[in-house]
Design goal:
Helices cover 67% and strands 0% of the residues. The model has no long low-confidence stretch (mean pLDDT 88). By secondary structure, the chain is mainly α. The chain is elongated.
């Protein structure tokens, strides 16, 4: 894909797609970003890329924060029935996307968020909450409860303990959660195609519209460049923070 994204279309049609380009050109990248037809829109992938960024960033931040808060409550401030609440949140991790489409559509319509980026953010926050709670709950289960009790004796309140004691020691699991949520939200297609309108279409839906477009010439080099543009953000996230990923997954896995 990378090699052929730098080839003119005429070279791709000649076959030998694994060969390096005879003529290097960045036309396909420029066209995919700002020029090519996406469905009937002649704007390239740029506006849809921005839509995905606007959707992903708040969805990841909110779901990570709420998951950390839930994990904190379910391990250090347990209440009657907390096990049942955690079980229900855990059950939500196994609910297929397709089952919730109609209920979500009705809720978005009632709230006036149908076809908006805010509506997509809400959907991804809710759907990701089970996973983020699971990650933080398992991490905080092995976190020394004595630190929390000592802070309470010193007069620290609920949020002071959370922000000053637990969060500073939670960097590995925060990174795991961010990578997980960023990848899931960015790569989602079903929610994007079901609940977006012309002004909130995410990158994955736009890329699909670009590739399956039936008018004009099939510009395979542009398709390759567009697919790489769609995958680039998740690749960057893994390169930048991947070394924390395994460390965060293993944190809290060993008890004793």
């Amino acid at each position: 894909m990378l090699v052929n994204s730098f080839k003119p279309l005429s070279e791709i049609r000649q076959g030998n797609m694994l060969a390096l380009p005879n003529e290097w050109t960045s036309y396909a990248w420029y066209s995919a970003w700002a020029h090519t037809h996406v469905g009937l829109n002649h704007s390239g992938l740029k506006p849809y890329f921005i839509n995905s960024i606007v959707m992903v960033v708040p969805a990841v931040i909110i779901s990570t924060f709420l998951g950390a808060l839930n994990g904190y409550v379910l391990t250090k401030w347990q209440f009657k029935g907390s096990g049942i609440v955690f079980g229900l949140l855990l059950l939500s991790c196994f609910i297929p996307f397709q089952i919730v489409l109609i209920p979500m559509a009705r809720v978005l319509g009632i709230l006036g968020l149908a076809g908006t980026t805010s509506g997509l953010v809400m959907i991804h926050v809710i759907y990701g909450l089970g996973f983020t709670t699971l990650f933080f709950r398992n991490f905080y289960a092995s976190y020394p409860t004595e630190l929390v009790r000592a802070a309470q004796i010193d007069g620290a309140n609920f949020f002071q303990i959370f922000f000053k004691i637990l969060i500073p020691g939670s960097i590995p699991i925060i990174v795991v959660t961010i990578i997980w949520q960023f990848t899931n939200v960015w790569n989602d297609f079903l929610f994007g195609v079901s609940f977006s309108d012309f002004n909130s279409i995410p990158m994955t839906v736009a890329l699909n519209n670009l590739v399956v477009s039936s008018h004009g010439v099939k510009e395979y080099n542009v398709h390759f460049a567009g697919a790489l543009l769609a995958g680039l953000p998740t690749l960057i996230v893994y390169i930048v923070s991947g070394r924390y990923f395994l460390r965060g997954l293993m944190a809290g896995a060993v008890k004793g």
